[in-house]
Amino acid sequence: MTQQPPGTIRLYSDPLSMFGAKAQIALLEKDLEADVVMVPFEMKALYEPKHPDVLRINPKRQVPVLAHGEVEIFDSTQIFEYLEDLCPEPPLWPRDIAGRARARLLELQSDEVYFPHIIRLMGLQDTPNDPAAIAAREGAAQFYTRMDDLLADDRPWLAGEPFTYADIALYMAQIFGERMGAPIPVDATRLTAWRGRMGERPSVRQVAGAMGRWLLGIGRPVPAFLRALL
Q1: Torsion of CA 110, 44, 56, 169, to 10 degrees
Q2: Is the pLDDT score of 163 beyond 80?
Q3: pTM of the entire structure?
Q4: Domains of the chain: residue spans and CATH
């Protein structure tokens, strides 16, 4: 059982925040109690009115934001790093320097190499044959192939051992990839099996399952693998 650090941990997120979900999963993996505040969010109005604490802490005016005593930070990767320093056990980065560097790079690539393709698709849902949409899907597919190759030789997680923040990042990002028409290719069998292992983790079932239920509640389609977590 993790020893809870003093002070209330408060995480500001919203029901459809991929980055907030990343931080929430990490808190659960660390067995840290947190007050999760879901800021106002609606598909048409989006984040209006914006939460005053989010506005005060994050100049980018968006979630996730984490507050813990005098510490007030934003950005899911910065939250990951804070949680690792705050609560080293269980580790969510590899212990060795080279392993940590590789895992950190994988987490970065999920956010900044893979996910930009998905963001591009969000604005092209009505024009799937647009060359930009085709290029975005191809870019996502190439990333999936690279991740599938990483999982060769029965490697359980993207960085090998242990389960890391890199796994959390890609899992949440590919939920949006699937929803935007860039699913994991059928021949990426190792990556599909990895996603199945992810769905077996209680933290993932709790957080991703809640997102799936929220999507169903507003009449949005939910990928089959996400429905299995409900």
Answers
A1: -10
A2: yes
A3: 0.95
A4: 9-86 (3.40.30.10), 97-227 (1.20.1050.10)
